[in-house]
Design a protein that fits this description.
Blueprint lengths: L6 E2 L6 E2 L8 H4 L6 H48 L23 H32 L2 H14 L4 H27 L21 H25 L3 H9 L4 H30 L2 H6 L17 H7 L7 H33 L1
Antiparallel strand pairs: 1-2
Length: 349
């Protein structure tokens, strides 16, 4: 037999192995892929599954919101079409019986926004101070207990806040309300209540409701703000210290600018909680009150309006009228969050 010829490369003259020496291991092992290729395929399968699950979760949230919006619109549309008054301007008493429909949202919108703004005005500076204290000034042995106590406020049921507000804070606010009316009554915010429509004797005023809401949203704003402040880059702090900045100057020039967007985001989360709060306000404020920006008056929010009249959901027309209030609150929440995102985006730009 003639031995196979050995081939040489033209450039070096070195012998090159026969072609059958270049057979891959997969071909010589019965077609089984190597172990590392099998592991890669398994990892790719895991990535595909995880990606699909994550995508499905995101789509599920969008679907739930869309279904809620569709339910509100479909349920409220017939009553809105039959409404004899202007839904956006009618501020009289709601009439949803006897074949007549007259309802509007100005009073509900006024009370909801006023109480929520009071809560934000009180809670935002306190939450900012707590967050700065916990991240910059608090001794290590106090950070854990104080953080736990603040977070514990978020776990208290709203009905408990309502009971505390009407049985403890309300009576305590009676002399304060009387003093405000007597000494600052020339201001529209603390004027003498009109037509005896307020709960001045029990302290069930819009001011009391705003204070209770401030306590309820305080842990939300504080938690988000604290977490953002902790993420301030160490290089920013060290650069400020290297320039001779004091502790407060480091906070003012490094921590606060870095955490501003998180502070606003946390405040908007708290505002969302305040806008939709029901049980606490249901116990504190009544269902009457004019639109005059007087904190000594009472009022009715979107949520308390629905809760107060839940027993009247006996016909589609009545139910649709109150669902329209829920639809307005739903839209209001979206608008508030959109405004917050615009503010944060403009600040970051």
């Amino acid at each position: 037999m003639v031995a196979p010829k050995q081939m040489t490369t033209p450039s070096t003259g070195r012998h090159r192995a026969p072609d059958d020496a270049n057979v891959t291991p997969s071909a010589s092992s019965g077609g089984k892929p190597p172990a590392n290729l099998t592991g890669s395929a398994a990892r790719r399968l895991g990535d595909v599954i995880f990606r699909r699950l994550a995508t499905g979760s995101g789509l599920l949230v969008t679907l739930v919101i869309a279904l809620i919006a569709a339910f509100l619109i479909i349920s409220a549309a017939p009553s809105l079409a039959d409404n004899e008054a202007n839904f956006f301007t009618y501020s009289g008493d709601w009439i949803v019986g006897g074949g007549e429909l007259k309802f509007g949202i100005p009073k509900l919108l006024y009370a909801t926004l006023l109480v929520s703004i009071i809560a934000l005005v009180i809670a935002m500076p306190i939450a900012l101070g707590i967050a700065i204290f916990l991240t910059e000034y608090a001794p290590k042995r106090l950070i854990g207990p104080v953080t736990y106590l603040v977070d514990l406020l978020a776990a208290v049921p709203s009905i408990v806040y309502g009971l505390w507000g009407i049985l403890v804070l309300g009576p305590a606010m009676v002399p304060v309300n009387n003093w405000l009316v007597a000494n600052l009554g020339f201001l529209p915010f603390f004027a003498e209540p009109k037509d005896n429509v307020t709960n001045m004797s029990t302290g069930g005023t819009l001011l009391t409701a705003g204070i209770v809401l401030a306590v309820m949203i305080l842990p939300i704003v504080t938690a988000v703000t604290r977490e953002v402040f902790v993420q301030t880059p160490v290089a920013h702090r060290e650069a400020a210290l290297a320039l001779g900045a004091t502790k407060w100057e480091v906070v003012r020039t490094s921590v606060l600018p870095f955490g501003f967007s998180g502070y606003i985001s946390g405040s908007m989360l708290g505002l969302g909680r305040a806008l939709g709060e029901t049980m606490a306000l249901y116990l504190i404020i009544s269902n009457t009150g004019p639109i005059d920006f007087n904190l000594m008056e009472s009022g009715e929010t979107f949520a308390t309006k629905i809760a107060n009249n839940a027993a009247e959901f006996d016909t589609p027309a009545k139910t649709g009228a109150f669902i329209s209030a829920g639809l307005a609150l739903f839209v209001l929440t979206f608008l508030v969050n959109a405004a917050a995102r615009a503010i944060v985006g403009r600040r970051q730009a």
